[in-house]
Structure formats: structure tokens, C-alpha cells
Amino acid sequence: SDDVKRQKIENRVAKMRFSAATARKIQDVFISEMNKGIHQQPSSLQMENTYIPELLDGTEEGLYLALDLGGTNFRVVLLELAHGAPIREEVKRYYIGSELRVGSAIPLFDHLAESVSDFVISQGLQDVELPLGFTFSFPMIQHSLDVGVLVTWTKTFNCPDAVNKDAVRLLREALDRRGDTKVKVLAVLNDTTGTLVQGSTLDHNTAVGLILGTGSNACYLERADRVEHWETERHGEREVIIDIEWGAFGDNGVLDFIKTDFDRENDANSLIVNSFTFEKYIAGKYLGEVVRVILAKLTKERLLFVGDSTSDSLLTSGNLTTDLVSHIEQDSLDGGDSNTKEILAKFGIIPDEDDIRIVQYVCEVASNRAALLVSICLASLIDRIDKEQVTIAVDGSLYKHHPRLEGWMKQYISLLCTPGRKFKLIHAEDGSGKGAALVSAIAHRLK
Ligand code: ADP
Q1: What are phi and psi of 203, to 5 degrees?
Q2: What atom in ligand 1 is closest to the CA of residue 215?
Q3: Coil, strand or helix at 140
């Protein structure tokens, strides 16, 4: 009967619905990994020092550049600041051919430098000294605000001779080879850090930056005296931005107690197996695949689409993208089924009423788990930050477009952080562009 079937399906995904005790356990593990990371003990959280010791103070003026590499687009950005706030922005996108993304790093960095000087010259600024913030959204080890050593390429890039090299130095050398501008690279950062700094211009209580896009990561303002890894001379800094690198949370096995057979298959289908454990539960690159794996298993177990022949397309890894999960979730919110039917039709499936409800339920369970996991970590950060009000600046298409994440996150964070703590979630668009220019302004002021 329908009730029996429904019960079977709920049982099948029951491990994805955390009890309060499991949520607490995850939170304890996250806090413990953060503490280990910051004390330089083995941990799946890198807790990288970004060497950004303070935010804008309202005195920053003039023109600042950003170069954004590693997101969906490659761009050069010019930001004009007055009293520490942006008053004008110019952006130009450049194309990086696939032949430049692999092989020697020299042609790639020459192309980056060429794009910077094309932009600067088109603005008539070739004779102006321009500070530049370099958003380099790849795993790196930072030795100071303007030294970032590439650990490994990811996404679509692979220029092996750049690994273990300082990305800033590679860029400076390429700019020097041209010698046609007066651009000064003052800072290297990633999109998460840029988001926090960009958020701070919208809300001065911003103390956390969060990315929920293709990948996921977060950073926060930490008390400087808690940070052990500090290679440069200290100048009485009170705070510093710590880049958690939480995509890798659990890579050492500490989160294995929440792993389901669905997650094991999602991992097995991924490009780099046994890494980015946390990202595979929460990020846009994987959420659709988690849903697809569950639907495929339920189909094979004859709990779903029993009246229909199995769709080969749905059984193929990568075929259900996260934007589709958003559209199905929109149906659940509206109490409708038109998006769900349309999406299933594209897979060659004509569902019955039960199938529709099951597909919507699976999207809800996977999305809800992502929201809860992110909220558990954010609540731990809010508790850790010693401020009356903590604003979390968020960027990324998953957060922007998923119709339920934000609402769930608000609800879960307030349940999970210490009662009475105040927090706010704000959208901070384009931290990887604007944020990097802002960081170069901070670096310029501190010089
Ligand atoms: P980045 O690649 O720099 O993270 P975005 O923040 O735009 O860029 O994230 C793109 C990712 O967001 C896509 O890979 C996809 O997983 C996810 N995404 C895109 N559209 C939607 C949507 N409507 N709902 C949920 N996720 C989406």
C-alpha cells in the first residue's frame, strides 16, 4: 500500500535527517576541528591566516583594481572609493582559452597581465599607480597578505609548474615583462574573504563570509591572540580574518558517522574521491547529484517510477544539476507539480502522483540536510565571535536561487547558537571582484 511504500522511503533516507543529538555531535566535531586547526594540530580544517588584520575604516579614497581568477568568470574590476565606500565600478570580463588553462603557467600569467593592462589602458590609467587585489580561488598557503603559494590547481586549471609557487610573484613577473602599467599587486585572497570584506561595506557588523555556489567555504574575524600561525611580524593586530576552508571538513574521517550509502556513491562519482567531504554534502556542484543518486537507488529498489520504464538518463552521473533541485523545491513551496513534471519529462519519465511526491520529498531531504549542516557550522562561528551582533555575508548561486535554504538557515542557526545571540544573513554580491579591490585598499592604507 501507499503508506507502506512511504514508510519504506522515509526509512531509506532516515539517516539524512539528523536528530538533535546528531546535530550537537556534528557541532562538537566542527568546534574541535577548528580548535585543532588554529593550534596547528592535525585537522581537516586548515584555518588559514589571510593576514587581513582589519576591515575598511572609512578613510580609503581613490582607485583600486581587482583581478578575479577561479570563479565562473575571469574579470578585471576597477573600484573608486570615497570615505571607504565604493562610488563607481567598472568591470570587464576576459576569456581564458582552454589551451591556456593547462601546460606551462607562463602563458597563462602573461594572459592575465595582458588582460590587466588592456583594461587599465582602456581606462586611460596606464600612468597611475594602482593597487591591485588578486582573487585567486584555489587552495593556497599564505605566508603574508601578498604571498600565496598554490597547493594544487582545481576546477578546469592544471599548470603543474605553478604548483608550490607564489601566485602573486607569477603575476608580478608577468606584469613586469609587459611594463606598460603601474599596477602594484598588494594582496592575494579568495572569494570567501572578499565576500566578508564586501559585506562589511553593507553592514558594519559583518564578521563571517560564506560562499554557497559551485563550492562552499567560510571565513570569519578571529581574535588575533588566538592565532598561532603568523609568519610576518605582528603590529598589535586585534583581529584577523581566518579562512576555514571548510569544504574539506571531514576528509580525515571525523564526519563518517553521518555518511550514507548515497554519499559514498556521490563521492565515488566525483572527480577527486575522498576529498572535499563537507562540500559534497552542501555545495551546488554536488547537491543535484546526491538527489540523483537517491532517486536512482529508489528506482532500482522498485520504490519509484514502478509504472514506468527506468530512465537511463537519470541513472547517469551528473545528469541532475542543482538548479533543477531548486525548481522542484519551488513546487514544494507552492504546493504545485509543474516544474517537477517538466523536469522528469526531460528525463523521459512520466510520473504518477506518488512519484511526484517522492521526488519532491527527496529534494527536500537533501536540501534540508545541506541547510542544517551549514547552519551547525555558522552557529558555532557566531558563538565563537565575541560580538553582540554577527552579520554573515553570503554569496553564491545556490544560496541566491534555492527557494528554501535561507529560511531554513535562519531558523536552524537561532536554534543552534547560544540563546540571545543576534545574527543576520545578508547577500553580499561579488565579493570576489569588489571585495578584492577593497582588500587592496586596506593593504594600501596599512603599508
Ligand atoms: P561559482 O562557480 O563562482 O561558485 P556561482 O556562485 O554562480 O559561481 O555558483 C554556480 C553554481 O551554483 C552552479 O555550479 C550550480 O551548482 C549552482 N546553481 C546555479 N543555479 C542554481 C539554482 N537555480 N539553484 C541552485 N543552485 C544553482
Answers
A1: -150, 115
A2: 4
A3: strand
Q: Supply the pLDDT for residue 3.
A: 85
- Cα(369)–Cα(281) distance, integer angstroms: 8
Q: Is 434 a catalytic residue?
A: no
Q: For position 306, what pLDDT does the model report? A: 87
Q: Amino acid identity of 306?
A: V
Cα–Cα distances (Å) from 58 to 51, 71, 79, 255, in that order, read 20, 29, 15, 42
Give the CA angle between residues 238, 243, 249 to the nearest 5°: 135
Ligand 1 first shell, C-beta below 6 A: 71-72, 213-214, 284-285, 322-323, 326, 396-398, 401-402
Q: By C-alpha distance, which of 402, 55, 39, 389 is closest to 221?
A: 55
Pairwise CA distance, residues 98 & 108, whole Å: 10
Give residue 138 CA to ligand 1 midpoint distance, Å.
Answer: 17
Question: What separation in angstroms does the CA of 380 have from each of 27, 254, 340, 384, 445?
Answer: 7, 17, 35, 6, 32
Round to whole Å and give the CA distance between 306 and 299.
Answer: 7
The residues pairing with 427 across neighbouring beta strands, listed in sequence order, are 394
- Shortest-distance Cα residue to atom 14 of ligand 1: 214
Give me the pLDDT at residue 310, please: 67
pLDDT, position 227 = 94
pLDDT (0 to 100) of residue 294: 98
pTM: 0.96
- Complex ipTM over 0.90: yes
Q: SS3 for 157?
A: coil
Q: Which of 239, 288, 244 is nearest to 262 (CA)?
A: 288
Instruction: Say whether 312 is catalytic.
Output: no
Q: Give bridge partners of residue 389 from the DSSP assignment.
A: 422
φ/ψ bin of 56: left (φ > 0), alpha (ψ from -120 to 50), beta (otherwise): beta
pLDDT computed for residue 156 by the predictor: 83
Out of 191, 263, 267, 430, pick the active-site residue: 191
Cα 367 to averaged position of ligand 1 atoms, centre (Å): 14
Residues with pLDDT less than 50, the chain = none
Q: Tell how far the Cα of 190 is from the centroid of ligand 1, in angstroms.
A: 17
Q: What is the pLDDT of residue 309?
A: 65
Closest-lying ligand 1 atom to the alpha carbon of residue 321: 16
**Rounded distance from Cα 176 to ligand 1 centre (Å):** 36
Phi-psi region of 141 (alpha: psi -120 to 50; beta: other; left: phi over 0): beta
